[in-house]
Automatic annotation (TrEMBL):
<feature type="domain" description="N-acetyltransferase">
    <location>
        <begin position="4"/>
        <end position="146"/>
    </location>
</feature>
<dbReference type="GO" id="GO:0016747">
    <property type="term" value="F:acyltransferase activity, transferring groups other than amino-acyl groups"/>
</dbReference>
<keyword id="KW-0808">Transferase</keyword>
<protein>
    <submittedName>
        <fullName>Acetyltransferase, putative</fullName>
    </submittedName>
</protein>
<dbReference type="Pfam" id="PF00583">
    <property type="entry name" value="Acetyltransf_1"/>
</dbReference>
<dbReference type="InterPro" id="IPR016181">
    <property type="entry name" value="Acyl_CoA_acyltransferase"/>
</dbReference>
<dbReference type="InterPro" id="IPR000182">
    <property type="entry name" value="GNAT_dom"/>
</dbReference>
Amino acid sequence: MSKITIRDAIPSDLEAIIALDRTPNEDKTGYWQGIFQHYVVAGRPDRVFLVAQEGKSLLGFIIGEVRAWEFGSPPCGWVFALRVSHTTREGGIGTRMFTEICERLKKAGVDTVRTMVDIDNKLTLSFFRGMGLRTGRYVELEKRID
């Protein structure tokens, strides 16, 4: 078995990321092109896009950034995307990527990391709870607008 490395995403990773995130009912190619432009091509220290790679295969990715003063809160790190290939889950890849993104966000000057998870997504919710995330001081509220 090859060694799994966690590294910064590069422009040539785009197709592998699209494939890793593909679902039968959605084509998110345009979305991922925009994300790559914003997080990979722009290359700012307050934006982090990491991939997990084994050999020539990408096994996962995590994306986050420093966001400042949302809802009056001080700047903090936000993780807004995480994916690990279903064939390699429970192998510690998500943990390694999350640990690395937290280190990068800390170097960018923040001491708190946040995310949002669909309450029905038990797998992702369990993962982030296992990483030490708990309910924060802000509560998401929503209303459907018909």
